[in-house]
C-alpha cells in the first residue's frame, strides 16, 4: 500500500475517532464498535435515537474501509445500509446487461433504496458517495441480502503452474485497491477533503474523486449528445468528472460552461489535469490475486461476475428451493 495514502487514512481515522469521543455525550445515536474486517456491516443501535429516518434493519458501515478510506467525505459522515427487498430485486432483474447505462442505473437504484448517509449540518444523498466506493457498498448490501450464503458468486481461477482450478468467492475481502499516487497525496487538504495541487504555470488545481451524483450528470450529458447525434469530445469527457467537487448545480449549463473553459486551456494545463485524473483514482483493481490451493503459486484472474451483473441480487440456481 502507498505509504502516504496509508498515513493520511490513519491520521483521518484518528481525527474522526477523537471527534467522536468529544461529541459522544451529546449525540443521540449510539455508535457501534468499529469493525476490524473488510466488508462487515456492524449492527446499528438506535434505542435513544431521535432520527426517524434511521429505521430498524439498517446497519452502519464504516467509510475508513471503503476504497477511498473515507478521505473525501466531510468529517463525521456516517453511512447506513440495509438488505435489498423484493421490490429492489425485481427492479434489478430488469437490467439490460448489454447496455452500460442500464447497468449503471440499476446499481444506483440499489444504493438509492438501500443506503442512507448523514453529514453534519447538511442534507445528504446517495449521490454524495464517491463513484469508486460504489462497488464496496453494493457488495455489502448484497452480504446483508444473502446472510446465509444462498447466492454465492464464485470465480474459477486456473493455476498456470499446476493447472489446478481454484475457487474465489466474490466479496469485499478479495478485492485489492488502487492506492492514490504518493505524488498526489502530499497535496491532500484535510479541511476541504480534496487535493489542492500547486503547479508552476496553471495555479492551484483542486481535484477529488468524482461522486455518483457528478457521474450521473456526466452520463446524462453523454446520452443527450448521442440522442442528438452530436459529436462527443472524448478528451473533455475524460477529465469532466474531476472538474466539479459538487453534484448539486452540476447540470447541462454548468457542463457547457466547463467545456468552453477547457477549450481555452493551453496544452500544459490540459496535460497536467489529464495526468491528475489518473493519479486520483482509488477504485478496486480489475484483477483478483489469490494463492493456488495446490502449489501455493500466486494466481491472477480478471474480475468477472458469474451469470452477469444480475447475479449480484438475482439467484440463478434455484435448486436449493426445490423439493
Would you give an account of this structure?
- With 323 residues, the chain is an alpha+beta fold.
- The chain folds into two domains: 3-153 and 310-315, no CATH class; 182-279, no CATH class.
- The protein is built from nine helices and eleven strands.
- It has helices at residues 3-23, 86-92, 100-114, 134-145, 182-185, 212-227, 234-239, 252-263, 267-279; strands at 42-43, 59-61, 78-81, 115-118, 154-158, 165-169, 188-189, 194-198, 204-207, 287-291, 298-302.
- The strands form four sheets. Strands 1-2-3-4 form a four-stranded antiparallel sheet.
- A hairpin with a 5-residue loop joins strand 8 (194-198) and strand 9.
- Helix 2 (86-92) packs antiparallel against helix 3 and helix 3 packs across helix 4.
- It starts with a helix and ends in a 21-residue tail after the last strand.
- The relative contact order is 0.14.
Properties at a glance:
alpha+beta; single chain; four-stranded antiparallel sheet; 323 residues; 14% strand
Write the layout of secondary structure elements.
Layout: H1 3-23, E1 42-43, E2 59-61, E3 78-81, H2 86-92, H3 100-114, E4 115-118, H4 134-145, E5 154-158, E6 165-169, H5 182-185, E7 188-189, E8 194-198, E9 204-207, H6 212-227, H7 234-239, H8 252-263, H9 267-279, E10 287-291, E11 298-302
Antiparallel strand pairs: 1-2, 2-3, 3-4, 5-6, 7-8, 8-9, 10-11
Helix pairs in contact: 2-3, 3-4
Amino acid at each position: 500500500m502507498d505509504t502516504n495514502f496509508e498515513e493520511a487514512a490513519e491520521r483521518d481515522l484518528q481525527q474522526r475517532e477523537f471527534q467522536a469521543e468529544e461529541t459522544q455525550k451529546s449525540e443521540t445515536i449510539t455508535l457501534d464498535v468499529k469493525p476490524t474486517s473488510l466488508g462487515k456491516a456492524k449492527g446499528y443501535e438506535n434505542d435513544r435515537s431521535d432520527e426517524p429516518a434511521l429505521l430498524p434493519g439498517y446497519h452502519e458501515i464504516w467509510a475508513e474501509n471503503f476504497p477511498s478510506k473515507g478521505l473525501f467525505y466531510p468529517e463525521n459522515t456516517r453511512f447506513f445500509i440495509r438488505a435489498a427487498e423484493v421490490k429492489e430485486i425485481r427492479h434489478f432483474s430488469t437490467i439490460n446487461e448489454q447496455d452500460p447505462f442500464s447497468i449503471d442505473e440499476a446499481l444506483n437504484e440499489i444504493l438509492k433504496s438501500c443506503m442512507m448517509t448523514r453529514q453534519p449540518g447538511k442534507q445528504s444523498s446517495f449521490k454524495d458517495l464517491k463513484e469508486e466506493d460504489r462497488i464496496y457498498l453494493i457488495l455489502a448490501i448484497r452480504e446483508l441480502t444473502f446472510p446465509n450464503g444462498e447466492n454465492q458468486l464464485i470465480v474459477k481461477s486456473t493455476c498456470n503452474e499446476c493447472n489446478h482450478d481454484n475457487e474465489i468467492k466474490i466479496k469485499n475481502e478479495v478485492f485489492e485497491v488502487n492506492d492514490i499516487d504518493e505524488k498526489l497525496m502530499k497535496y491532500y487538504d484535510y479541511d476541504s477533503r480534496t487535493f489542492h495541487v500547486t503547479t508552476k504555470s496553471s495555479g492551484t488545481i483542486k481535484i477529488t474523486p468524482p461522486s455518483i451524483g457528478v457521474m450521473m450528470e456526466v452520463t446524462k450529458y453523454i446520452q443527450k449528445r448521442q440522442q442528438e447525434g452530436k459529436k462527443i469530445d472524448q478528451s473533455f469527457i475524460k477529465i469532466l468528472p474531476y472538474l466539479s467537487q459538487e453534484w448539486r448545480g452540476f447540470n447541462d449549463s454548468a457542463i457547457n460552461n466547463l467545456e468552453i473553459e477547457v477549450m481555452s486551456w493551453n496544452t500544459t494545463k490540459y496535460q497536467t489535469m489529464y495526468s491528475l485524473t489518473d493519479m486520483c483514482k482509488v477504485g478496486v483493481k480489475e484483477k483478483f490475486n489469490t494463492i493456488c490451493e495446490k502449489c501455493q503459486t500466486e494466481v491472477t484472474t480478471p474480475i468477472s461476475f458469474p451469470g452477469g451483473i444480475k447475479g449480484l441480487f438475482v439467484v440463478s440456481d434455484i435448486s436449493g428451493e426445490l423439493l
